[in-house]
Design goal:
This protein is an all-alpha fold. Helices cover 69% and strands 0% of the residues. This is TetR/AcrR family transcriptional regulator.
């Protein structure tokens, strides 16, 4: 029988597990992170981990959900929705999302290691992510639907696919250009994509 924890103990241990998970998942990834790694320094045994999370994938998802509101605030509320005009909004969204992928180790890892998100999705109910109120993808879809008259194509899946293609650029940074030229290429590409997806303003 698993030990009983007070509310304060449970909160403290959960925080330690989340901190360990964030550090380990971003440095060595989901697959290479063991339960032994996750419980280190928490004062609990591996078997007691399951009192707190159903699996290490559930811990990974919890970390994503915690960060989701912050990410949405930066890339949707602070960029996409803040600019006047759809074209400027898409441009700001791409720049903000690329900055997020570069500066947020967990989200950046999901871009460079999509198999980790697939592993999380296989073990858990994907509706937990898609139905989250702060999901940036849901907010982007709502923006595209609301501004469909400003877009050259009314197929949101096509537009999202084009935006995702731009977000894959950092994966190929070293192959595309030197460090001085890469930001200029990226800026120009973002301008071309934003202009190409929107009607003349």
């Amino acid at each position: 029988m698993p030990p009983a924890f007070s509310a304060a103990e449970k909160s403290r241990i959960t925080r330690l597990l989340l901190d360990n998970g964030h550090r380990l998942f971003t440095t060595q990834g989901l697959r290479k992170t063991s339960l032994e790694d996750l419980v280190a320094g928490t004062g609990i045994a591996k078997s007691t981990f399951y009192v707190f999370f159903d699996s290490k994938e559930a811990l990974y998802l919890e970390l994503m959900l915690i960060q989701m509101a912050e990410v949405k605030s930066r890339v949707i509320d602070g960029a996409l929705g803040k600019e006047p005009g759809t074209r400027a909004g898409l441009r700001a969204f791409l720049h903000a999302t690329l900055a997020e992928l570069d500066g947020n180790p967990l989200y950046g890892r999901l871009m460079t290691h999509p198999e980790e998100m697939e592993a999380v999705a296989r073990k858990l109910d994907p509706a937990r992510v898609t139905s989250a109120p702060d999901n940036p993808v849901t907010a982007l879809a709502a923006f595209l639907a609301e501004h469909s008259d400003d877009l050259v194509d009314d197929d949101p899946a096509l537009i999202v696919g084009i935006l995702q293609t731009v977000l894959m650029m950092p994966l190929h940074r070293d192959r595309l250009a030197g460090p001085d030229l890469y930001p200029k290429i990226l800026d120009r590409l973002i301008d071309i994509i934003a202009a190409g997806l929107t009607v003349s303003e």
